[in-house]
Every structure is written in C-alpha cells, then in structure tokens.
Design brief:
The chain has a seven-stranded parallel sheet. The radius of gyration is 21 Å and the shape is globular. Helix 12 packs across helix 15. It folds into two domains: 187 residues, Rossmann fold (3-Layer(aba) Sandwich); 165 residues, Rossmann fold, CATH 3.40.50.2000. It is an alpha/beta fold.
Length: 370
Amino acid sequence: MPTLIVSPFTPRPGSGRGLRTVGVARALACLDDVEIAYVEFDGTRVAEPLADDARVTLRALHASRGVRRAVTYVRARVAGTPRAFARGVSPELVGLDVARFDRVVADGPTAAAALALVARNPHVVYNAHNLESTFRLELSDGARHYGSVGDLRAFEVRLLTTAYETWVPTREEARLALELVPSARVRYVPNVVDVQGIAPVSPNTREARVLFVADFSYEPNRNAARFLVDEVAPKLWRLAPDARLTLVGRALPPPGTTDQRVEILGYVDDLADAYARSTCVVVPLLVGGGSPLKLVEAMAYGLPVVATGRAASSLEGAEDGVHYLEANDAEQFAMTLARALSGEESDIGRNGRLLAEAEFSIEALVGHLR
C-alpha cells in the first residue's frame, strides 16, 4: 500500500518549508507510490514535478470554517498544541482515513498535531522541519504564538513520543531530539533540492553582483536582509564601490536605503536568471534553526557562497574555505564578499556544487530513506 503524506499546505517550493516537503515527497516516490493529502487555501499550484509524477496521487482538501473548525481548534489546544499550530488543524486533516496506509508522514508540527487527534495508525512518521523548541522562541512574536519555553518543549516531547519515527533535517537536531526524548526513534533526513534539475552557472564577471534569495515572511530572513543592507553594504562599497546587491524573495520589505546599488526584485518566476546574473551568493543568517535550503540551492548553482557560521554549521560535510566562505560580522562579511567578487574564490562554487550533489540532492535523500 502507498505512503500517505499529510500536509497543511500546498506542496510547492515557494519557501524553505515547501522545499523540504517537495524534496521528501519526491524521494519517497522513488521508493513507493505516494499519496499527498494537503490543505488548499490560497490557490497556489502543486510543484510540477509532483503533479507530473505517475507514482504521486494528489488529494486537495478544502479547509472548512465555522463551528467544526472552532471545535477542532479547541481540541488541539486542550491537547497542548500551541496556538500557532492549532490554527492550522482543520477538521479535514483530523478526518482523514489513515488506517489503510502502511506509513503516514505528518508533514510538520501542524499535521502531526492533527494526526495525534486521530491516532488510528501506529506508523505515523513526524517529518519535522525544525526542532521547534530550539529556535521558535528566538522570534519576536514567539511567546505570543507558541507559548512559553516549557509549553513548546512539552508539545514537542509529545510529538517525539507518539510518532513511530521522527525525521529531522540536521544531525545536531537529531542529538537534541534524543536529549528531549531518549527513547524516540529519530532519523537524519536532510533538506534537499533538485540538484540534477539545476544547471550550474558561471559567476558574472561583467559586474560585481551579490545575490540574496530568501522567503522574507520568515523573520530571521528579514533580520538578515537588514544586516546585509544596513551594516555590510556600506563597508563593502568602501572596498568595491561598483558592487551591487540583489534581493529576491516573497514578502520582501522596503530597503532601509535609497542607494541605487541595492536592487529589490521581490518574488521572481525565474530564479535561474537571478543566479546567472550574479557573481556570488550571500546567506547572512544571524538567528534561526535548521539547514537553510537557499544555501544548498546556491551551492547547486555552482556560485561561491558567503554565509554565517550559524547558516552553514548544520550542513553535513560543509567546510569553510572549501565549499563556502564563512563570515560572521559586518567587517568580515564585506572583506569576504570583496574577495568573492574579485574572482579569487572560483573553486568554492565548484566544490559547493559537488557537495550539494553528494549530500543534499533528491538522489542522496533516497539513500537516507531506503
């Protein structure tokens, strides 16, 4: 019988969350038939590789409103689900017939909380996008949406305890999960991208252009953009006056500068073109958890990547000076970007691509899930 993936969102690669969902689904479809039951509420389309895969069946669920939804929300809250996740627990997720599947994958904490209310299948796998209690409360609205540290940890302990197995994106999170629940079954299932579907590009030598791609609805990415524009850029321009910054991604806030060397593109349909126009890529995350998929994506394009230690530390096998260039404060970032823009670090991009193929591709993930 096929594997069922239950997701509170349309599986599409518009965010790090979506990229993980699509990557896991495509890897599982290499091993078994897969059915994806997802809540459709914003009209977005499913990722084309999933829609075109003969081994994938898609089942769109349309979230209801009114009394049924309110009752389900209350049930989730009484069971200890934080408000931010309980809001996504719809009656359609709770009402799924999961007993006929050999394996059910709960895609993220909202789906896991919904399936915990069903409890008709002992083989529910929790596909964790992050170890929630390690980073959610760093966000400015953390306590308001996720409760206290103790509340969030208790919720996560329940998910780890009730799941047949938990999949986490980094080995560090696997270690922390086992500290929370030593008896839990935890598997390292890294974040991946379709590396074989990405044609590597050569660094743009006609102009010095730095690219930052992110989902800016996520607060750590907005924080990173402010750091890049307000603190790094002025120091970079003293070293490379012609350097340009390009910011790409949805929900991009207005820049804190009127300097014409900062290009704000927002959401674009063709990311490959944005990478092809760039000399190097930057991932300046100062807070947040997990392994940034945009860092893996940048490596797959074969461009040199400058990233904070926070962003790159969870990437298995990634070495500073070999696969990426590490910088952690504004001065260091500016100097490292100047080197990357000068063409001195051309091997970094090639090595990053090789690492992405070996560790963070869909083909690599099939090996972890086999």
